[in-house]
Amino acid sequence: MSTILSEYPHEIRNIILGLTDLYDKDCSNIILYGSAALNDLSYKITNNKYEFYSDIEFLVVPKEHKNENNIEFRKELINKSLDYLKSFSNIETVPFVDVNPVSENYFINAQLRISNFELKHCGKILKGNNLLELLPDINQDNYDAKIQNIEIVKALKILVLKSYNWFLCNDGYSEKEKNHFSYFLSSSFLNILRTLLPLFGYFKLTAGERVKSVYDLKKNPRIRTYFSEHILDQFEHVYNDKKSCVFSYSPTELFSLSLIGYKSLLCLLLNSNAELLISDLENKKNDIFSGTELKIKQLSLLTSFFLSALDCIYNLIHGKEVLDADINRVTEFFDKLIAGRNAFKLVSILDKYSELERSRWRIIGSKD
């Protein structure tokens, strides 16, 4: 097994293998995926201590069926992982370890998403049979952008939640916290390419390969219609910063790049423009999302809600007024949504916007 991780320093190998041993008793299959599986973990070494920026991600198949897709079992494994990593004296910043307990059907019924394309080709079997063989072969012939586009909704959601916490909730962030938030924003911006490139026939496994493909994208008239040359140029710049974990752009600048990038992506998918984007998300929702009528409606409303919330954050951090109409639009979309697991977080965002507007408090520039 150690040869699978041979490109890592022995300290990193020991960490990953130690985590694998933690899950061994309860799990029949253990698969490493994500940046850790690509030998692309991001970290710094200072005074012989590791400061991790990347997450370490595992898929496991529990020995007991009751633990498959079990949230409490997942929490138990994540907490065990955290306690284990805290025991290392050479870890300055403990990475988040995500452990997802699934059944074999997870692989058999996997959707045609780029995440499963990456998993099939880059996942590392640390224990058990090669379940990755059960995953579908995803290529230009069977790729369905409508299935992939749910990843845009997920990306916008986490961008809202994390940016809300950073820009609106606390003034006391350290330089280290700023760097980790910048790392998140850089990842958010670069992930646009995971959805954009396959639309034009590019199926790439790593961020580095995707960034190299941007040169070809610049030649495409359709791309140039929706993405400015400035935004396209930033993919390489942001990638180089993320790889080094040294960030030349402020969180405000990185947030703005992500928001503009995702809006450009949605405009391309909808053949729309920034002024009509929200209305086209309603009128053309069946063109970009798949599923039941209810699911498609929910995805459209979520996307509109997240974009409206992100616009409020954008205005605040650029010293612009958040108008009553802006808040009302966010509230209107939220009121139409079916409450989900993160509803309480979304409500708190609305409350914060209302509080800011009532007090006429604005953030001038940012805390950068």
Descriptive tags:
about 375 residues; alpha/beta; Beta Polymerase, domain 2; three-stranded mixed sheet; about 55% helix; disordered C terminus
Explain this structure to me?
This protein has 368 residues and is α/β, with parallel strands linked by helices. Helix content is 56%, strand content 9%. It is built from 17 helices and 7 strands. The strands form 2 sheets. The protein has a 4-stranded mixed sheet with strand order 6-4-1-7, sandwiched between helices. β2 and β3 (49-52) form a beta hairpin. α7 runs parallel beside α12 and α12 (251-270) packs antiparallel against α15. The chain is globular and about 55 Å long.
Sequence-ordered SSE layout with sheet pairings:
Layout lengths: L9 H15 L2 E7 L9 E4 L2 E4 L3 E7 L8 H16 L4 E3 L3 E5 L3 H4 L5 H9 L1 E4 L17 H4 L1 H19 L6 H16 L1 H5 L10 H11 L3 H6 L2 H16 L6 H20 L6 H7 L1 H4 L4 H25 L6 H13 L6 H17 L9
Parallel strand pairs: 3-5, 4-6
Antiparallel strand pairs: 1-4, 1-7, 2-3
Helix pairs in contact: 1-2, 6-15, 7-11, 7-12, 9-11, 12-15, 15-16, 16-17
The fraction of residues assigned to DSSP E strands is 5-15%
> What topology, given as strand order, has the largest sheet?
6-4-1-7
Count structural domains: 2
What structural class should be given to the helix and strand makeup? alpha/beta
Helix content: 55-70%
Determine the mean pLDDT.
88
**Backbone CA Rg:** 21 Å
For the biggest sheet, the summary is: 4 strands, mixed
Number of helices: 17
Described by its quaternary structure, the protein is: single chain
Which series of helices and strands comes N to C? Answer: HEEEEHEEHHEHHHHHHHHHHHHH
Low-pLDDT residue spans: 357-368
Number of strands: 7
Shape: globular
Q: First CA to last CA: what distance?
A: 43 Å
